[in-house]
Amino acid sequence: MSANSDRRWSLARATEFFSGDGKPDMLDIRGMTAVTKGAAGKRDKFRKSVSRCGVSIYGPKHSASASATDGAANREKIFIEDPRAPCLNIDYSNDAYRLLPSSEKFSAHTGVCQILGTKCIRGGKHRVRVGDIIRFGSVGLLVTEIDTGGVGPNDATLSPSEVNSLIQRVVCHDEALADVDSGMDTDDENGDASGNDESKPRSSLQRQSTSAICYVCYDETEDDNPLIAPCKCSGDTKYIHLNCLKRWNTNGEKNEICTVLDESNARTCSICKAPYPSKTRLPNGKVLSLLPDRLNPPCIMFQVVTKHSSSTLNLSTRYQLSYKMLMDNDIHRPLMVGRSSQCDLVLKYRTVSTIHAEIHYSKGEFFLKDAGSSNGTLRYIYRPLTLHNNQSLHVKFGRTVLSIKPTKKIRLPHFFGTAGHLHGSGSRLDDGGVQDDDELSNSSTPRNNRIRYYAAQQQVPTSQQQQQQHARQNLQTQMQNLDL
After folding, report:
1. Quick one: which H or E segment has residue 404?
2. Which domain of life is it from (predicted)?
3. Which of 36, 151, 250, 284 is most exposed by smallest CB count within 10 Å?
């Protein structure tokens, strides 16, 4: 056996080897429902296996509509005691299991979601595509753009109308389901609780000037960099160059990796406290954008789609992350997502871990990996998801976590390398369902059949072999006589 083919056998590989065509025909479901706060007792656990049929799992609110659901007659029904659980449907058709889209809209705490990883469920890297809705803790982000400069196969951009249409279709903006924060969003490790952690360079003395001067670079020139008055300041702090303001309107030293491209998260002036507008009009009538410039590819863009009480997580805030600077400097590390100010994408919210997840880039594709977060990294399921054979899929809906695994039932004919299926009495049926004539005896059993089969395969010794055996016996007899 060559070194390339010398792979360690495992139960999964052995099951796949002895399972014929490998198309799943059984579904193993394990579930656990968390107990609500203050309730006594253990967590509710259940297990169910079905064969060649779909499954519908109902919470108390949806149990009444179990018979009225389309296709419910062809599915096994499971009822769980989870008041928050919506209906979850798994369909079986064309020798494949498919998890159907969520029947509940997405919000900070609702919707059927695939668990990409938590501190208890360690997941690997998951490919990210445009249109994915990712939930970090309770913060929901929509992937609106992937730009690899033509290197990757999944480059795409959602237009503003497509984003609005998708949000209206799958995202719930009910005020009752909005995530309400009970305190200030702070980074526990770094103690960063201030809203504005950057301070603009100011002159200690206010000077009266007859001409407009940028209070950052103290330059009067306006060649391709006009002077503007974006806030309510007066005197020497009234004017600033457009490019100088854009540099201060980004994430400081990390502006080459992450930038905010939305007016809803505009910075405020540290002197007059007036928010900077997203655009301004020059005296000649030209309109200029005050938002920071777009980053170079490869880059990925997220948009907040969940409502929060935090002032740093306004609805529709967009974040653009770029790998360009890391690649140019030959830095091999993922982009970090978390609550810490040291992360590349900072989500200052209590349900987000200090270091929550990692964003990897390889061969023109972006991948997402959970970093052992407390509240998990999840992906909302609003498109049909095919379940692969012998691969577990972890799903969260309501307070219930499911482990779903399609398998192939092992059949003995595959083990013995012969075609057909075993009859109930142990004899073999051919592909047409006809029993062999030599196995019609009542005393025929699988064990006797195998004994007769292997006995018939034994070859009768030839005459040459008999002569050699006779000569060997004669030689042994002569040696015994010499010893005497």
Report:
1. strand 400-407
2. Eukaryota
3. 284
**C-alpha torsion sign, points 429, 431, 433, 436:** negative
pLDDT in tens, 432-447: 444 444 444 444 455 5
- Segments of 20-138 assigned E as strands: 26-33, 44-51, 54-58, 75-79, 88-93, 96-99, 113-117, 126-127, 133-136
Query: Which single residue is written with the structure tokens 């201060």?
Result: 248
Q: What's the CA gap between 460 and 464, in Å, rounded?
A: 12
- What distance in Å separates the CA atoms of residue 300 and residue 128, rounded to the nearest whole number? 10
Q: What percent of the chain has pLDDT over 90?
A: 39
At residue 104's C-alpha, the angle toward residues 101 and 109, to 5°, is 115
Alpha helices in 115-268 (DSSP H): 160-170, 242-248
Q: 240 - beta bridge partners?
A: 228
Q: What is the DSSP letter of 101?
A: P
Three-state DSSP string of 225-239: CCEECCCCCCHHHCC
Task: Provide the pairing of β-strand 299-304 with 139-147.
Answer: antiparallel
Q: Which whole number is the average pLDDT over 303-330? A: 85
Per the omega criterion (within 30 degrees of 0), is the bond before 298 cis? yes
Q: Where are the domains of the chain?
A: 11-100+384-407, 126-191+198-379, 421-436+443-456
CATH class of 11-100+384-407: mainly beta
